[in-house]
Amino acid sequence: MTATALKHTVSTDTWQPLCAKADLVAFSGVAAWLNTSEGPAQVAIFYLPRQRSQGQEKELYALDHFDPFSNANVIARGIIGDVKGNPVVASPLYKQHFRLEDGQCLEDEDVKLRTWKVAFRGEEVWVEG
Predict the structure, then answer these.
(1) What is the DSSP pairing of strand 115-116 with strand 118-121?
(2) Fewer Cβ within 10 Å of end Cβ, the chain: N or C?
(3) Residue 23's CB: how many other CB atoms inside 10 A?
(4) What dihedral angle (degrees, nearest 10) is formed by the CA atoms of 34, 60, 114, 93?
(5) Looking at beta carbons, which pairs linking 44-52 to residues 24 or more positions away fall under 8 Å?
(6) What are the residues whose beta carbons fall under 8 Å from the beta carbon of 8, sequence distance 6 or more?
(7) What do you get for the CA distance between the two ends of the chain, in Å?
(8) Average model confidence (pLDDT) for the chain?
């Protein structure tokens, strides 16, 4: 099972399996399809393994794969970083920074990516659609 190939045919507002933990790349993103009540959406999943020395609480983040500045599905290809203690992804095209926690663009307060609840269940990644 790969993160980019897995599709579901029924829209739902419940937790859905998206990929296996082995499909994730540490400190990077992968793209997957997610069924939502509004229809299918492309989601970017980011895996930041816990680092005890930094006191990090979350390991997984899920936000829109669609970059509103370039009108392209590229967010999963962005560069992971840290701005003022917050984990962010920089869009690979025009380099706007989006907080992984809430999708807020740091350069434009009027722009925010959708986020989803995401968690490991055993060796699978599940997202609430």
Answers:
(1) unpaired
(2) N
(3) 19
(4) -100
(5) 44/75, 44/76, 44/78, 44/89, 45/3, 45/18, 45/19, 45/76, 45/118, 45/125, 45/127, 46/76, 46/80, 46/87, 46/89, 46/100, 48/80, 48/87, 48/100
(6) 16, 33, 35
(7) 19
(8) 87
Coil, strand or helix: which one is 53? helix
Closest CA to 129 of 36, 9, 10, 18: 36
Joined tokens for residue 46: 């980011």
Q: Which two tokens stand for residue 126?
A: 């599940």
pLDDT digits (tens, 9 = 90+) for 18-74: 999 999 999 999 999 998 888 999 999 999 997 554 555 689 999 999 999 999 999
- Band (1; pLDDT cuts 50, 70, 90): very low
Strand order of the sheet with strand 124-128? 15-20, 124-128, 118-121
In single-letter form, the type of residue at position 95 comes to K
